[in-house]
Amino acid sequence: MNYKEYIENINNKPDGKSIEPVFKNPQEKYISDYRVPSGCAVFGIIDETGRLFDGRMVIEGIAMMHDRSNGLGGGFAAYGIYPEYKDDYAFHIFYNDSFARKDSENFLQKAFKILYMDEIPTQKLRSISNPPIIARYFIRPKNIFQDLEKFKNTDALNGDSISNAEDEFVANFVSNFNADSKGAYIISSGKNMGIFKGVGYPEDIGEFYKLDTYKAYIWTSHGRFPTNSTGWWGGAHPFGFLNWSVVHNGEISSYGTNKRFVSGFGYKCTFSTDTEVLTYLFDLLVRRQGISIYIINYILAAPLWDDIETLPENIKEFLKAIRIVYAKALVNGPFSIIVGSNNFMYALNDRIKLRPLVAARKGSLTFISSEESAIRKVCKNPEDIWNPKGGEPVIVFLKGKEPLLNTDAELEQKNFLESINCLPDSFAQAIK
Residue 71 in 3-state DSSP? Predict the structure, then answer.
């Protein structure tokens, strides 16, 4: 069924019931009036001390930008919410029906040891209709865990090697599950974190999931629906993959190129939206290829060639090499994103800042938002507030979790910073 037929089918059903999957909200008319690419809202908070706080503050912040949303998508990512299972993977799964759930759980049990499972607590709201079955699982990879157990006390494998192998196993499982499974989607698959999303305004989604009962040290949130598809439960933001979560305001015009790039490394884009490919780019570049989070902006929002030419020779060659090698990872189009991970929160604009992004600090808290008003709603007197420039990242680590630099690396970074300050545009401060 094509898009026009789908709209006509929805508008002409006398009983209001949909023959489409339960992920789609049958009560909404997905007409072009709802498609406002600039209208998204993003909001994030991190306490760099690791102090846990409940979801009320992030709900208030995103609710302040109600008019930037449209009721077809909202969601939250929270880090630190499952301390009792902090070393195990937490899967949040949407099911179309009980048959999909039964088939999927049989499949899960073949690959994982399920430590605990339940349905995620929710409450009925008039504003939230037709939700899927929403289940939660705390699991460990079964086969790889058993195979590697005998190596744990030897020099053959260390803890990082085992963790990396398990992450790769889970990543492949989730990618294939979402691509091949019918009527089921894994929307969250990290450790000590979870994604809560659906069709509705974000403040209603927060109430639906009872997020005021959860405590986390990082919260991110989003209002609206995926840019290039209709509003549906699986397509709402944040998009998650392992410990990554991404919320995004804008529209990626390079989506096709970026999608082909990550597909070449085995990623399967199954949610029909540009935000999904951003999530895979971070996983590929940072987790799999080990590129420093400090220079990811020079790949995703690379300086213009003319600006690169103004730099000292060694820095010029470095940035040229990045642009050539990772040409297909360059993200074109208007965007502002907030990325969550277990140890940090990261925010980035497109290189000419076509979408708004505001940052603020007070004490150990850092706020990122589409609008300053949302920050001031929850933080009356911030100590510092600023507008990050185009291509300039905001990176806040948990204390003690910052990447370590050796002496040579520190010297190289110092030289790089001094040279990069020669840039005539917004990239001058990009990695400070």
Answer: coil
Residue 180 lies inside a defined structural domain of this protein: no
- Strand-pairing partners, residue 327, are none
CATH of the domain at 396: 3.60.20.10
Task: Give the model confidence (pLDDT) of 191-216 as tens digits.
Answer: 999 999 999 999 999 999 999 999 99
Q: Both 27 and 61 in a single domain?
A: no
Does the pLDDT of residue 13 top 90, yes or no?
Answer: no
Q: Is residue 135 part of a domain?
A: no
Q: Is 269 a catalytic residue?
A: no
Q: What pLDDT shows up at residue 164?
A: 87
For residue 64, which of 202, 238, 193, 267 has the smallest C-alpha distance? Answer: 202
Domain coverage including residue 337 = 40-81+192-429
Domain count, the chain: 2
Q: Which among 213, 241, 240, 238 has a CA at the least distance from the CA of 226? A: 238
- Closest by CA position to 228, among listed 259, 184, 185, 265: 259
How many CB atoms are closer than 10 A to CB 162?
17
Q: What does the pLDDT average to over 346-356?
A: 94
Asked if 419 and 311 touch (Cβ cutoff 8 Å), the reply is yes
* 151 inside domain: no
Residue 20 domain flag: yes
Full-model pTM: 0.85
Q: pLDDT: is 146 or 30 the higher one?
A: 146
The answer to whether residues 199 and 233 touch, using CB atoms and an 8 Å cutoff, is yes
Structure tokens at 370: 């589409």
Report residue 258 as tokens: 């970026």
Q: Angle 98-111/159-180 helices, nearest 10 degrees?
A: 150
| pLDDT confidence bin for 229, thresholds 50/70/90 | low
Position 246 scores a pLDDT of: 97
Question: Which residue among the candidates 40, 269, 379, 422 is catalytic per the annotation?
Answer: 40
- Whether the per-residue pLDDT at 291 is higher than 50: the answer is yes
